[in-house]
Amino acid sequence: MRRRFAVPLTAVAMSLPLVLVPAVSASAAPSDKPQVLSSWTQTSASSYNAWNSARNNQGAWSAYGFNWSTDYCSTSPDNPFGFPFQTACARHDFGYRNYKAAGTFPANKSRIDSAFYSDLKRVCAAYTGAKLTSCNSTAWTYYHAVDIFGVAPAKTTPEGLPQAA
Fold it and tell me: Residue 164 — pLDDT band, cuts 50, 70, 90?
């Protein structure tokens, strides 16, 4: 009788750490918020992919208190000439809003803007010929607009609505 229960119990006990480890590593301590924020606002495709994965699973990151609100490309078209820039604009908003909240926006603005430009160029890489040239020119224009005119966004509610002053 003991042997019949010992083998399944041993298997359960051995697999328990495998179940618990991913849950622990997926939600690091909120004291790591600056590190996580930095990792999601780099110029690399892996940084973009990690941010986008987290964006699609915001509940798992709720302990961090990130501001996920966005107005996408603000007053510019989100998909100019059919180029899908909307998600790149959302990540750019994420960087601006969260670094502003952390009080470190001025020190990070240039990198956030560079990451935005990298994201736009990755969108453009899907095209060839005249479409590629047009997309790259539009990306350059969007990048320079935020580089020159980009400021910390107005304070918003978690739903993305303007807050009363």
Answer: very low
Cα(144)–Cα(114) distance, rounded to whole angstroms?
10
**Whole-model pTM above 0.90?**
no
- Average pLDDT of the chain to the nearest whole number: 84
Side-chain-side CA neighbours of 113 within 13 Å: the count stands at 19
Q: Is 92 a catalytic residue?
A: yes
Query: Which residue(s) pair with 162 in the sheet?
Result: 156
Q: Which amino acid is at 146?
A: V
Higher pLDDT, 37 or 27: 37
Q: Check residue 41 and report its DSSP letter.
A: S
| Per annotation, catalytic residue among 92, 97, 100, 109 | 92
What phi, psi does 51 have (nearest 5°)?
Answer: -60, -45
DSSP character string of 45-68: HHHHHHHHHHHTTGGGGGGGT---
End-to-end distance of the chain based on CA atoms, in angstroms? 71
